[in-house]
């Protein structure tokens, strides 16, 4: 009899060689499935290959990558490899840059594959059956909330599928329901902590949360530590990462050991194979280098993806297979450092807005939510970067001191001299949804 979902599975700690053999076998099977799909035949033949050329990991590199534009061209059900009536449900991408793209799930995809992937994540962070879970991800076509529901149910957790929002009610219920686990945006937890304090609650003593699974928005170590300091002793904020395209929040999670180093395991490599590639050459990056996450779904029956380009950038750990937890088959990556479309090159130096955010988060006296990067240059050779920060009215440091500190920290972190300007409390733009941190100014003539 196989162990229950909450019990350690042999695959959790399998050797790398065994995992690679599983990947080879599943890639060959994927090739056979794609060979039966006219959409996939057309996509592959344009790159001069056939689905049956996919036999193992070695042959994967010859396969073309896939992008959102390839899917949009096959509206409304792109690359669906099963008959429509075999789809149990659809999920969709957010559609911030056009119509949402729909991905199908068979009953097996949803109730077996996804459930097993999420269970491995829960095991890695120590969720137990009977844990009371405040599920705060959104519902509807978005995959986050519904994926958690089906997986928590199978795992034996006690789910409170609240979804986002309802702060006032949740302040009461966080105390009365005594949730022990939460899945939500870390920014939302920060908002709840602030509001709880204002309302006279003390999260440190009145809440029972011990595990947070935070996706959707990558959390820096500084931000995470700030949250953990205000939570009940022992509470840990774990980053998770996944995508609608990969079939759920299923790609990576930090473990109790890698948590301290701000690293996550690619935890489901036997069902979603990940490559970390240089976004320009599409060659694998070396350990310690930054690359784009490109994945291939190995088990998905409906809407499988072969070499999907996420445009999300991570740093492959310097020693990817060396975590103290013993998960030798599941390499370590950093949290997301940015998106390949966010990457700036300033006088030849690679800069990501998240690096600037980390610096600002670590300086006392600055507003953490209000800052901007202004870039001057002709779009090819960016030669000047200005960082605008905001001094809190109650800050102990003067504006000049804050400017000097940010300048020195950016110099230390990126090796770059930039202009820093300090603005009064409340004067820089605030963003309700996704922030526009980088503003390109008119090229100088
Ligand atoms: Zn580990």
- Give the % helix: 25-40%
The number of helices is 12
Main sheet: strand order: 4-3-5-6-7-8-9-13
Report the major sheet. 8 strands, mixed
Percent range for β-strand residues? 15-25%
In short:
The protein is an alpha/beta fold and 445 residues long. Helices cover 29% and strands 22% of the residues. The chain folds into two domains: 1-340, Rossmann fold, CATH 3.40.50; 344-440, ANL, C-terminal domain (GMP Synthetase, Chain A, domain 3).
Q: What does it look like?
A:
The protein has 2 domains: 340 residues, 3-Layer(aba) Sandwich (Rossmann fold); 97 residues, ANL, C-terminal domain (GMP Synthetase, Chain A, domain 3). The chain is 29% helix and 22% strand. It contains 12 helices and 20 strands. The strands form 5 sheets. An 8-stranded mixed sheet has the order 4-3-5-6-7-8-9-13, with helices on both faces. It has a 4-stranded antiparallel sheet with strand order 10-11-12-14, with no helix packed on it. Helix 6 links the parallel strand 3 and strand 4. The relative contact order is 0.10. The structure holds zinc ion. Zinc ion (ZN) binds next to loops.
């Amino acid at each position: 009899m196989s162990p229950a979902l909450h019990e350690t599975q042999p695959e959790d700690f399998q050797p790398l060689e065994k995992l690679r053999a599983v990947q080879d076998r599943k890639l060959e099977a994927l090739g056979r499935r794609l060979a039966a799909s006219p959409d996939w035949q057309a996509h592959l033949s344009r790159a001069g290959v056939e689905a049956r050329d996919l036999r193992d990991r070695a042959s994967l590199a010859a396969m073309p990558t896939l992008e959102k534009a390839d899917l949009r061209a096959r509206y409304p059900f792109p690359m669906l490899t099963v008959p429509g009536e075999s789809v149990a449900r659809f999920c969709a991408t957010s559609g911030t840059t056009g119509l949402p793209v729909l991905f199908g799930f068979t009953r097996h995809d949803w109730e077996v594959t996804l459930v097993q992937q999420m269970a491995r994540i829960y095991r890695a962070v120590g969720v137990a059956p009977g844990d009371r879970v405040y599920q705060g991800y959104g519902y509807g076509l978005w995959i986050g909330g519904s994926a958690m529901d089906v997986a928590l149910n199978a795992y034996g957790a006690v789910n409170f599928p609240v979804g986002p929002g309802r702060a006032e009610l949740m302040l009461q219920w966080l105390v009365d329901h005594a949730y022990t686990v939460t899945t939500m945006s870390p920014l939302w937890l920060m908002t709840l902590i602030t509001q709880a304090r204002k309302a006279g609650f003390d999260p440190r003593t009145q809440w029972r949360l011990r595990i947070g699974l935070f996706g959707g928005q990558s959390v820096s170590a500084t931000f995470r530590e700030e949250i953990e300091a205000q939570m009940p002793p022992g509470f840990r904020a774990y980053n998770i990462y996944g995508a609608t395209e990969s079939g759920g929040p299923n790609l990576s999670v930090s473990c109790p050991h890698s948590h301290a180093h701000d690293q996550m395991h690619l935890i489901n490599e036997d069902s979603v194979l990940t490559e970390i590639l240089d976004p320009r050459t599409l060659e694998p990056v070396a350990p310690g280098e930054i690359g784009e996450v490109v994945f291939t779904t190995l088990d998905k029956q409906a809407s499988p993806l072969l070499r999907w380009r996420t445009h999300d950038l991570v740093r492959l750990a310097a020693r990817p297979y060396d975590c103290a937890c013993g998960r030798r088959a599941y390499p370590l990556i950093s949290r997301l450092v940015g998106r390949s479309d966010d990457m700036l090159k300033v006088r030849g130096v690679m800069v990501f807005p998240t690096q600037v955010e980390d610096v600002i988060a670590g300086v006392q006296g600055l507003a953490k939510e209000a800052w901007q990067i202004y870039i001057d240059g002709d779009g090819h050779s960016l030669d000047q970067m200005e960082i605008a920060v905001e001094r809190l009215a109650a800050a102990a440091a003067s504006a000049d001191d804050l400017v000097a500190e940010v300048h020195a920290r950016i110099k230390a972190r990126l090796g770059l001299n930039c202009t820093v300007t300090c603005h009064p409390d409340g004067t820089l733009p605030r963003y309700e949804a996704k922030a526009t941190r980088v503003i390109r100014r008119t090229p100088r003539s």
